[in-house]
Amino acid sequence: MTEKNINGIKILHSELLDSTNKAAMAGEYAHLTAIVADRQSGGRGRLGRSFFSPDGGLYESIVLSPERILCGTGFCTAAAALAVKLSLERFGVCGLSVKWVNDLLRDGKKVCGILTEARTEGGEIERIVVGIGINLRAPDGGFPEEIRDRAGAVDFEGDKLELAAEIARVLGEYISLSPEKIAELYSQNLALIGRDATVTDYADGQKKLCGTILGVDENCFLRLQLPTGEIRTVSSGEIV
Ligand code: BTN
After folding, report:
1. Which atom of ligand 1 is nearest to the CA of 24?
2. How far apart are CA 151 and CA 147, in angstroms?
3. Which of 67, 72, 148, 201 sits at 20 to 30 Å (Cα–Cα) from 231?
């Protein structure tokens, strides 16, 4: 592992880790330290899924101290999605939008996934780890069959560690905003508004809801209009 300081952000960089989130959860790191790997052998995704993590991606976990998260820990994933989008734009990547709740899309394909995990001690959140996986380039030989129709890449040509540092720096700024401001920015960057979609509601026994996506509310919860006209708010789920 090599250590670098880029614009005030400490980057711990390895060629290979099993999971940068696992490493960030296990060690003792200061606020905004970024653990970065060129590839992961056991990348973790949401809901216990694995995250395909070959060469050609940026796999980064940013450590956050809860007392520095002024918007509230529930807004970290939304803040991270905004931080990744803004940072990539600063490096010249355009055409990105946020797919609720934790993905970034480009040309309708997933180019980034975010997994936020919390470490607790005595029932208190003691650390938040925001894990970000970005497909900077399509892997040699292309994406595996099972994700080929959904996965894309941002075609990033710059310095990966500078991008990692910028994401951590911008995330540090976003988590200092109010929850209302994060929800407002998140709404402005949201994909699929007005589109009909199926949403899995994890807070309601994985129920599948079909409806039109209206946007998010002040908690960054998804608002969906059902064919009956009823408006549902989904706090935890996935747009299928
Ligand atoms: C998802 O799309 O389900 C979330 C994927 C999050 C992947 C990133 S890659 C860096 C960090 N380390 C991990 O093991 N997972 C996250």
Report:
1. 12
2. 6
3. 72
